[in-house]
Design goal:
Pathway: Cofactor biosynthesis; NAD(+) biosynthesis; deamido-NAD(+) from nicotinate D-ribonucleotide: step 1/1
GO biological process, one term: NAD+ biosynthetic process
CATH class: Alpha Beta
Strand order of the largest sheet: 3-2-1-4-5-6
Radius of gyration: 17 Å
Largest sheet: 6 strands, parallel
Function: Catalyzes the reversible adenylation of nicotinate mononucleotide (NaMN) to nicotinic acid adenine dinucleotide (NaAD).
Family: Belongs to the NadD family.
Helix content: 25-40%
CATH architecture: 3-Layer(aba) Sandwich
Strand content: 5-15%
EC number: 2.7.7.18
Amino acid sequence: MIDSIVPTHIDSEIDTMIPATPVGSPVIQALFGGTFDPIHYGHLRPVEALAQLVGLKHVILLPNHVPPHRPQPEASAQQRLEMVQLAVQDNPLFTVDTRELQRETPSYTVETLQSFRQEIGEQSPLAFIIGQDSLQTIHTWYKWEALLDVCHLLVCSRPGYQSQLSAPGMQQWLEKHQTDSTHTLSQKPHGYIYLAATPLLNISATDIRHRHLQGLNCDDLLPLSIQNYIDSQRLYKK
């Protein structure tokens, strides 16, 4: 069961938090990866809020093909790609990159980030967006120690997760790299962690799949275009 109702608009909550972006500051290229099975407002709205907080002009969505740390998606790679494209087709903040879907092997974040780094050069700011749940387990990721050598980490709030890291040594790692300065993120190419006060939306793709199976309303959880697509493809009917 979903515990909270998603607000229709978040602009009024975050207008007063939008930082002044210095003229001539480098543009941060930001990436947001996920299984997106299906994509929903819990993915989109915190990232939209983060974009206003940090001054992001562009966020690239990266659907995973073979996620290494979780069960395989129920929807096919093509179906998940089409849902992501539908979700952002009228939102100029987002574009979609398919490089991970083109792999037959597991998608490791550090390798994807390294491929972007090669494309944009060593001095351009690059950021990877994650949730607090992922931050808690980031020490289990493949070559996680190399992530901050390639990018910044922008962390969205998640209900039920603390900003303190519980794994041994990880809180010290967080404090060493944490910054509250959005200016630093745009002036440095990598190396910092920013904990963003984004809206707490208690939505998960697992809950949506369960609700869809039970015939329950999902209007507050994901765009109507995605619901229609799910119905047309007869997804999540097991």
